[in-house]
Amino acid sequence: MKPTPLPGASLTLSANDGTAQIASALDAACRDLTLSAHARDLLAQARDALRSASTDAETARLRYHALFDAVPDPVSIIDEHGIVLDLNRAGMAAYRRPRSEIIGQPIDVLNPDLPRGHMVPVWEALDRGDTYVIEVTNMRADGTRFPVEVHSAGFELDGRKCLVAVARDLSRRQEAEVRYRELMEVIDKGIVIQNAAGEFVYGNGAALRMFGIGSGQTLAEQMRPEHWRPIREDGSEMPWEEYPAMRALRTGKQIESTLLGLYHRRRHQLLWLSVTAVPQYAAGGDSPEQVLSLFSDVTELKRDSALFDRVQALAHIGGWEWDCSQDQLYLTDESARILDQAHTALSMQDMIDSLRPGDRTRLREAVDAACGGGPGFDLDLQGTHADGHAFWVRVIGEAETGNPDDAAAVRLTGTLQDITALKQGEETLRVQARTDPLTGLLNRDAILGELEQRLQDKALSRLAVLYIDLDRFKLVNDVLGHAVGDELLASAASRISSAVGTEGLIARFGGDEFLVVCGTDDDHDRPERIADAILASFAEAFRFGKEEFAITTSIGIARAPVDGERPQALIQNADAAMYDSKRRMRNGRQSFTPALAQSQSDRLHFETQLRRAAENEEFHLVFQPQVDLRHGRIVAAEALIRWRNFHLGEMRPDHFIGQAESTGDIVRIGSWVLREACRQIAAWRDAGLGIVRVAVNVSYRQFLGDDLANTVKATLDQFALPGSALELEFTERVLIEDAPETLRTFAQLRDLGVMLAIDDFGEGYSALNYLRRLPIHGLKLSQLFVSGVPGNQSDVAVCQAVAGIARSLGLGLVAEGVESEAQRKFLLKLGVPIGQGFLFSPGLPADEFAHRLQAPDHAYRD
């Protein structure tokens, strides 16, 4: 039950109504003629004074609420009993409650978790004249909590004790603290924090490992001074006061990279460290409250003095000096190596020219400013070597005037540090959460974001996208399984990465498709050079156990801004170029052209027309007779789909079946063919022609994506047909699907009485091991081999082998593409009983096929 609001709990100034009534009464008295003039004059003065006081009070009230509501944090006025007297606008927004639900209520309505007597320590602090600060959890109207830091101060209102409480939301601070701690733990450098007394209060995982601190041991205990002896670089003992962290606490300044040794007295172990100590101040503080030390283990370098002498080279730091008046630049050996230039006297322009265009301007402006008496500079810049590989360098410089009276005698000196690895590491950390787990490359979302960002940056917007697709990947995936397919993708990603190097961003865009994004502003031919390197990297076959596969790539290239200014347009155009490359030759590259854009538009138009063909009733079936090769009698038919489009005209099946397979429309088309074939069989039956068995091709995608057995059963039931009226033809690809679902589907179809056959046997996988497991009825001998008999010995051998397989497994055999009498006689001699082809008939409309069945002389005569 909510407490009853206390009378007068709100600070809203409400005396104005009474003041107005008194003023009205005085005004009426002034008009009373029974009073003396002197009395009326005194009453008028009282009335005017009262009205003036009322106006001042109203002005004060408005000023109070304006200031009260201007505070961005929740502010509440609370009496000594904990009752809320007033709340500003920020408080209503934070607690998501109107003032009416809070004013006059105990503070518990905002913080139900406060303990009993919570006001006691507050008033004790306020009575001493202190400000009371506490972190608590407040509650919104919907019950959700959020952390706040509350600052309270006391005052008196109308003779009673009150306090004003300001609550600051700590949610973002806590989130930042969590991210900070996570970052500290993933950094591979050791990090420790010591308080103002030098006591160790925190160490990240890398620090604990370096110091040999195991689980169950505390950092403060293990780092006590009696356990360690600090040593200077020259081997002498270093007093703890000279330790970098203690110097930073004492001086309040950052202590840069100091080499020191730490000797563990009990373990007799010497650890050499490079330490940087950074003092940290509390808000408003004038002395450090703690110090953060960042260190690297350089024990191995120090152990060998010869190696240690080369620390500068190993750190990739070199020096440079530029005489402004003579425009002569001197580079140390290491600086020359970093810039890939000879270290003889050069001009400053030579160093600037080695950088990317945007960074050339930055360095030139910094150098000119320093020469003109300005401050020194510290810049991270990106450049390009002569071989096209990018590098990052940190350039530090400052002016050194030889003669103060001679402004032309200024020299700039500084250092160059190769930070390519560091920048690459930063890039890796930045995208680590956006990588493809299989290949370690950027994923789809990450590369789209990177591409969007670069296209918006004018300095980086001249770029190219390479769309890479692996040729024949699906064959490996289907034959050897997904595990080998994943291994192939990982190996392919490694080859692409090696070929691209640091010249572009690489991503796995999906399946067996990859993207490379590279800049073209400083090297117009970079995309083609990268593409050629990728093609060359796939020259060697991939090996998996005893299997060897020649996998190549097809690459499409699109450039910004000429081929598109948005990520989707660029990728789409690169994809179109890739498909054109695959169609032309495979294992090649193709740049996007306007002609490809038109081709892509035509393909999209074709896909749209194909998708609407069924609902527009543009499909129809023809029926090619299957005949007894000896007597010529029609024994069955194969249903063949035809498409007559209103805009494109008559379309050959080989023009649209493959397209339907790639878009997935083949599943819907296959369902239409199945139903239409059954409808026609029923129509012939109703016309008195009996049951004519019709063969229907089933797509591999239809087999995988549809509940085929139930669909076939429902269609047969719809037209009251027996299963024997239907024959389903599958490609050899289904043979490798040695899965329980595949065997179950074939068994269910056979139980329905449906005839099952493998179409074009011998063209594809010829997986005989799987063939003997499936409950099929027959094989269809491909036209590819029938066309060559009896003259071509290779085709004869294949036909003999397929016939032998059919006989040994007890399977029926139908030959496709029989076009000559010589072929018919060869097949009969081989033992093939049934055939179809132009020798007997092409595909016929349903009524013409029925007429052939009814004609007494329809049989082909021997």
Automatic annotation (TrEMBL):
Residues 377-431 form the PAC domain. Residues 461-594 form the GGDEF domain. Residues 603-857 form the EAL domain. CDD domains: EAL, GGDEF, PAS. InterPro entries: Biofilm_reg_signaling, EAL_dom, EAL_sf, GGDEF_dom, Nucleotide_cyclase, PAC, PAS, PAS-assoc_C. Residues 60-113, 176-223 form the PAS domain. PANTHER family: BIOFILM ARCHITECTURE MAINTENANCE PROTEIN MBAA (PTHR44757:SF2), DIGUANYLATE CYCLASE DGCP (PTHR44757). This is EAL domain-containing protein.
